[in-house]
Amino acid sequence: MLRTLAHPASLAGLGALLIILLMACFPSQTLESSLRGIMIWWQVLFPALFPFLVISELMLGFGIVHFFGKLLDPLMRPLFRLPGIGSFVVAMGYVSGYPVGAKLTVQLWEQRLVNRAEGERLVAFTTTSDPVFLIGAVSVGFFHNAALAPILAAAHYVGALIIGLLMRFHDRKAPMSSGPQRHPSDNHNKRREPRITSALKAMHEARLLDGRSLGKLLQDSIQSALRLMIVIGGLVVFFSVVIEMLTQTGVAEAMAELLRILFQWFGLPMQLADAVIYGLFEVTLGAKAAGSADTFLMHKVAIAAWVLSWGGLSVHAQVVSLLSRTDMRYAPLLVSRMLHGFISIALVYLLWGWLAP
């Protein structure tokens, strides 16, 4: 009996039942938190993510991914133990923000352009915030100081690249994938054909292999982006309700009080405990709490960098929902997000003397 209750599926079921009971006890708070989650999704996430999702789908159909794969293969393999095609995911993931990197990685896995180990490495360091959110929402909106953007961006994106370098040691015995299929004449021409030419050929062949018309490709891209946005919106609303239920029952305050004790031991401002608790679940709420905390600016920026790099369980759930279609595991993502958070904090303190406003 105890073994059955300890099963992850049973625990998840009990957790869902408890949340339903709490929602019945706090109906007005449930409605308010749901509306708050919808506003975050509609006003922040939808306009920031939807265009990039459509564009990334179009670029996959046009074969631009294969172009980058051929062109940057000599750089990606020695640095990150990834095929060159992963460079497209890195670029789009950093520009578009979570969970675009995971979505594109899943698509590459489905096309057999990356294997499980490479996919896990790629998701680990492309699950990042987008610059629009980092600069517009966090630096300007929450901290009211655009001059903080350079140090936040440096800590976040340099930290992500460090994770990429560390993840090259993940699953070292796994074989390397071959990446995009080579043209039969590649071996004959590889000494005299410029890499840009072979990259253009790879893009053209991928476009011919896809075969969809521009209208069909655009339609499929919009439909795919909308499906993912609905999933993201649902998860944001769900975690908004969960956080509100934890707040109403006093669980969030108890967690924050425990964290304040730990902060006091390590000499950190206790005022930032709430930001860490909120950021544990959701990025926007955590970053907003960090910006409004009454303490030294350096510590507030460090915690905001941690929130952005950890990503919140809401982002983790979005990525896991995408990975569920593959054989890629959640554990590498969890470890990399934890490491990224602590590396980002360290980078904020190290760079504060040079990049502080």
Query: What ranges have pLDDT less than 50 throughout 5 or more consecutive residues?
Result: 182-190
Secondary structure class reads: mainly alpha
| Helix content percent band | over 70%
The rounded Rg comes to: 22 Å
The share of residues in extended strands comes to: under 5%
What's the β-strand tally?
A: 0
So what's the overall shape?
A: globular
* Major pleated sheet: none
In whole angstroms, the N-to-C terminal distance is 58 Å
pLDDT averaged residue by residue: 86
Could you spell the SSE succession in H and E letters? Answer: HHHHHHHHHHHHHHHHHH
Number of helical segments? Answer: 18
What features would you describe in this structure?
Residues 182-190 have low confidence and may be disordered. The protein is 78% helix and 0% strand. It is mainly alpha-helical and 357 residues long. The chain is built from 18 helices and no strands. Helix 9 (149-167) crosses helix 16 (297-310), helix 9 packs across helix 18 (331-355) and helix 13 (251-266) packs across helix 14 (273-281).
